Amino acid sequence: MRTRYQGIPASDGIAVAPLFILEASAPAVEERHDVSVTAEQSRLQAAIEQTKAELQTLFETAKEKMGAENAQIFTAHLQILEDPEFAGAIANTIDAQSVNAEFAVTTVANQLVAVFEQMEDEYLRQRASDIKDVSQRLLSHVQGVSRTSLAELQSPVVLAAEDLTPSDTVVLDKNLVKAFITDVGGKTSHSAIMARSLGIPAVVGLGPITHSLVSGTTVMVNGFTGEVIVDPTPDEQAEFAASIERHAAAEEQLKALVNEPSVTTDGRQVEVGGNIGSPQDLAAVLENGGEGVGLFRSEFLYMNRTAAPTEEEQFEAYRQVAAGLNGRPVVIRTLDVGGDKEIPYLDLPAERNPFLGYRAIRVCLDRTELFQTQLRAILRASHYGNIKMMFPMISNITEIRRAKQVLEEVKADLRRNAIPFDEHLEVGIMIEIPAAAVAADLLAKEVDFFSIGTNDLIQYTMACDRMNEQISHLYQPYHPAILRLVKWVIDGAHRHGKWVGMCGEMAGDLTATPILLGLGLDEFSMSAKSILKVRQAIRNLSYEQAQKLAETALAEESEEAVLALVEAWHTKQ
């Protein structure tokens, strides 16, 4: 029977295919006390080692398919497995209650999941699914049973599940899974993030629909709008088919722009590049016509390991990217850890407000040996390409001067040892703290460029955690305060002849493109998949008209008014 559902659009795209419902794996577990505690501990430890090996394999698979950043999900799973609150608690339960390992795993997992599911923060609530995922994997090894593998699908389907774990998602075959829909989840859930990375249309948060649907039923999924239609009418199927053809044609048309400049109809040329976390991510940027890398998140080189990368390891990673770009620029952000980026071996202190605490440049200026090693690697690699360097989380001029002082000391050492590097390497800073934005004209005298990190700039300016659904409505990229800060930063830099890029999510948002262009932004950097769409938008814009739009937007009184203005402007174009 035809039914229409509305969920949360989590990944763009449209698909029609028979439904395949993934049954939740729930192995029966009984509580047993007629066991040897020693034997149960041995079974648990063996299962933990098997799970670790499996997660490491999944990490490598995810890294190859979706890049280093998304693969970090499995690093987090390994950390859960090694956390005393998880593995330690399971072992303690076996000892304390003299129970079988299966029961101990299930008991501890249920307790932890319940704690996370009751948290107010949406992001933390979503982490309950990670604990479930790790627990199910560990339980299957304790029981010695095989998990259902989606890799065994034989024909195209729309996949439906209560939720998809990261390890379910990473093995999806794009040729067979045309889309997926889930009962739960939001835009920040791991399955949503990974769906976007894989390019699979997805709608999440549909409610308990998997209990009312039947496998084999035809389903249409619109990942742009969040609409899902079960058993559609012939007219609706025809409408969807036409939409699929239009989107496919648009994607094909975009490929023609791979080698074209990002220039407006009246001749203003800007740079459109990509963001990466490892050398492996560079291929996608080049395939989509990136004119450079506007953000190399170097912190990912430090993750999923037990000690910091050596100077040689870092040098080779930076050299590979610089050489691969063949003269095009790469902006390497120095180590940005702390906040939500935990690296256990750095042993950063626990803090009440980590986002306002000991992180990024603050850590580097305090642990100069760590900082110097990275700077040496970046400088050495600069001999092999067009590398630029920028410091994150700058809040005042003193931090810039101290960072540059360390940089000069490293340069002097390289010169003494006759090690070549680019003597003219440009040095910039991230603008992500309101204080730095307001003082942009002062800071511009100290550096060669700015890169605006909109994700943090918006959160700090609006005092809003974007992952907290209770206040997420305050995360407003188009708030006049944000637009005025961006304008202030650009004007402050241009006044001193410096260029300004943007590497936050706003840079890849097509709604923002005409405003940012009109405000005078020089460089846009984003996920590889967004490059051609933004380039196409820029090539269809008049810089003069974009300037007028931006000027009007700055005078609006609210985000809603700005969005209405942009919508009306597009209608007239």
From TrEMBL:
It is found in: Cytoplasm. It is an enzyme of class 2 (transferase). It catalyses: L-histidyl-[protein] + phosphoenolpyruvate = N(pros)-phospho-L-histidyl-[protein] + pyruvate. InterPro entries: PEP-util_enz_mobile_dom, PEP-utilizing_PTS_enzyme, PEP_util_AS, PEP_util_C, PEP_util_CS, Phosphohistidine_dom_sf, PTS_EI, PTS_EI-like. Gene3D superfamilies: Phosphoenolpyruvate-binding domains, Phosphohistidine domain, PtsI, HPr-binding domain. General (non sugar-specific) component of the phosphoenolpyruvate-dependent sugar phosphotransferase system (sugar PTS). This major carbohydrate active-transport system catalyzes the phosphorylation of incoming sugar substrates concomitantly with their translocation across the cell membrane. Enzyme I transfers the phosphoryl group from phosphoenolpyruvate (PEP) to the phosphoryl carrier protein (HPr). This is Phosphoenolpyruvate-protein phosphotransferase. The lineage of its organism: Bacteria, Bacillati, Bacillota, Bacilli, Bacillales.
